[in-house]
Automatic annotation (TrEMBL):
Residues 30-81 form the HTH cro/C1-type domain. This is Helix-turn-helix domain-containing protein. It comes from Glycomyces paridis. One of its GO terms (molecular function) is DNA binding. InterPro entries: Cro/C1-type_HTH, Lambda_DNA-bd_dom_sf, MLTR_LBD.
Length: 280
């Protein structure tokens, strides 16, 4: 671990960002350039003291998970993320979609979407980051670990996952998830993260039946009916914006103006994040 290189890199990247670059309000006039240490720490979900010690060359070696959070908070490119890991004494993470590093270009768009639910997914359906309204609409989908991080795995192993959709939309959603998985599996092979998901689900009869259809598609637009615990059913349009390499996408949920759905979306800001549902 090169403490000096790590500290200097973190400081330079922090000073190169403005609050509006990361979705924060400008606030009062600042004496020093860039973000404050406490702002970076908050964005990375770590204590200010921990982050400060890293910049002061006296912190412990951060874990790979902590470095990934810092890379996201500082809006690092993939090359910058790799350097961060190397300076901290870690191997460079894989550049496959499942690595979890959020594309800075998508993050910049997400930072500006304050009035509509939006989230960023990997090509395997792993929710990487959600804005506040997306958490209120869908629940916090970034809290899972292991294979449960992936929507397709939870869909076929956890009945609670289906409660976010009305019954008539569930078959279509299951087909879409399996189809998207097959697209990634075809390009990355059986030894990839996609292959691991397929092997983990091959004992699930419903998944196997859909997998054997060999359907492939990547949707750019859709119409969904989402079930929000406090607001009920909400009919929404869902648009997808993909990165150039198709490894990640930004999903944005909207409703036509002056509709019941638009009124319900406006209420999301006050209902908060719904608790995890239970199946009777």
């Amino acid at each position: 671990m090169d403490r000096e290189a790590l500290a200097e890199f973190l400081r330079r990247r922090r000073e190169g960002l403005q609050p509006e670059d990361v979705g924060l309000p400008p606030g009062v006039r600042r004496r020093a350039p860039g973000l404050r240490r406490e702002e970076v720490a908050s964005l990375a979900a770590m204590s200010t003291d921990y982050y400060t010690r890293l910049e002061q060359r006296r912190g412990p070696q951060p874990s790979a998970q902590m470095l990934a959070s810092l890379a996201r908070a500082l809006r690092l490119s993939v090359d910058e993320r790799d350097y961060l890991f190397q300076a901290a004494g870690h191997g460079v993470p894989t550049r496959l979609a499942a690595a979890g590093h959020v594309a800075p270009a998508l993050l910049r768009v997400l930072d500006r979407l304050e009035d509509t639910p939006a989230l960023i997914l990997s090509s395997l359906g792993e929710p990487l980051v959600q804005n506040r309204l997306a958490k209120a609409l869908l629940g916090d989908r970034t809290v899972f670990a292991g294979l449960e991080r992936f929507d397709v795995y939870r869909w076929f192993t956890d009945p609670v996952e289906r409660l976010v959709y009305t019954e008539e939309h569930r078959e279509r959603q299951g087909r879409a998830l399996v189809s998207a998985l097959r697209v990634v599996y075809a390009s990355t092979g059986p030894r990839s993260q996609a292959g691991e998901l397929v092997r983990a689900l091959e004992g699930v009869e419903e998944f196997q039946a859909l997998w054997e259809r060999h359907e492939v598609m990547k949707r750019f637009a859709d119409h969904k009916t989402i079930v929000q615990p406090e607001l009920g059913e909400i009919e929404l349009d869902c648009q997808a914006l993909f990165t150039e390499d198709q490894s990640q996408c930004l999903l944005v949920f909207t409703a036509p103006p002056r509709t019941e759905a638009a009124e319900k979306l406006a209420l999301l800001g006050v209902v908060g994040v719904p608790p995890r549902a239970e199946v009777d």
